[in-house]
Give the backbone structure.
Amino acid sequence: MNRKFTFSLFFFIIYSLFGIAYGINITVEGTVRSEKGEPVEFAAVYVTEAALGAITNEKGEYILDLPSGEYDFVISHLNYETVHLNVVVKEGEKNVADAVLRENAVMLSDVVVTGNMAQALEKRGFAVNVIETRQIALQSVQVNEILDRTAGVRIRQDGGMGSKVNYNINGLSGNSIKIFIDGVPASNYGPSFSLSSIPSALIERIEVYKGVVPGYLSEDALGGAINIILKQRRNKSLTTSYSAGSFNTHQWNAAGSYRWNNGFTVDASAFYNYSDNNYKVWGKDIRFTDTDTWQKIDSQGKRVTRFHDTYRSLGGKFNIGFTDVWWADQFLVGAVLSESYNEIQNGATMQVVYGDRHNRRASDVFTIDYSKDDFLLDGLSLRVDGSYSILNRQIIDTVGIQHDWLGPIIKDGEYIYYYSAGEIGAEGGGRKTAAIDKDYATMVRGSLRYQFNENHSLHANYMFNDFRRKVSDEFQPAALQALANTRDLQKNIASLTYENTSFSGRLRTNLFYKHYFQTVTANEPMLVDGQYVLDRFRKKINHNGFGATFSF
């Protein structure tokens, strides 16, 4: 991070918060563009005399309210040279202060490299948007907020930080949309290491595929895919950031790397997120309990505080190995460790209120990654990577105290409980539960790419994914616990892709074939004539698919 820019932004914020207004304010509008005519987002516009400022939006626009007079506008950006504008603000006139920024020569090489990557992806024929996080990483913005700004993508979140998220791409959602992290299905990392918890500062770019998905993303994504590419640092660096906000929200992340001259590389990052999510809610589903009549009373629009919605997640990623050596472009062995705690405030509707129900999740993922260009032959690229994951998910509902939106329901100084079969039950209904889903996932992926010449290339990809789940609950009857409750899933996905460029690179064609082979096995206990028996289920799925994309 550029230290001069950081201090400039810091003082800009301080001055903006404590700026002095003089007389009657007049609106000044402006647009900041690059020499290519492209809007410049996140440019800082600072007015020296008034100690006021603004940040440009995605269209490069900003608005300031100033008294009439003559001002020096200082417009700065990390990747552009600072510009000074002499602006005379006059009452009764339309005041416009546009600016054109020249690229900073010091940052030019980095910008070109990143830009070429994004442009290369967007010109391969797929309907893809590439979101680079270089500028957004300076802000405290979550990944889901970034995605929601993307054309054709809509994010629907049930509540505050850590709540359930639904991704919609061009009208398709649910199982039609798949999430990847570095090309690996996000489910292999577990819910505690996900788009809701990974800070934007640890992300290199986000690829959003709308519709057809490339062959190397080996999944059955029919409606689109989101691929998060994490930063791979190969230099000597150390960064950290912290932010705090409403509802006792705290976010922190840190990342560092070191590479020795012999290619030995260490790369590590960590994050922590916390929020009470104690915001106000109101509406027809907000009801209170009359302990005399046990009737639900309408809240009549009264605002209440969510009192049981705390979210906490933390995690770390560590890699060690060699980079840019003669035998490998990258050989890294690593681990991703994460955990989360999430209180559950209400059921499917807000009429059902919880005060103790919560879930805990933990993920231990061990990875290995090898890649080499010009492997054995010029133009032949190889990548092999694998992971082994141990994922734990637990729902805990053991207290059984009844709640409404005012808190625990109390009558005559005593808590009121839920009951099931003559015993204190669970808030979610029925028996108490401390159910643990323990998942074991093994993933192996191989990719070969041969570049025949600058116009023709062939890609072969294969992914094997084995997923096994064991379910246990100490509050279940002993006879039920004695039976194995397991679910197994094996996926084999192979793909072959041909890429062609013609007409001096203006026409790009992709033809691909995918083969899916999947086996599902489930052993689930069920009650038959008062006895628990094991219900066995097994199904095999074998499908072929193909597609083509064109870009001109």
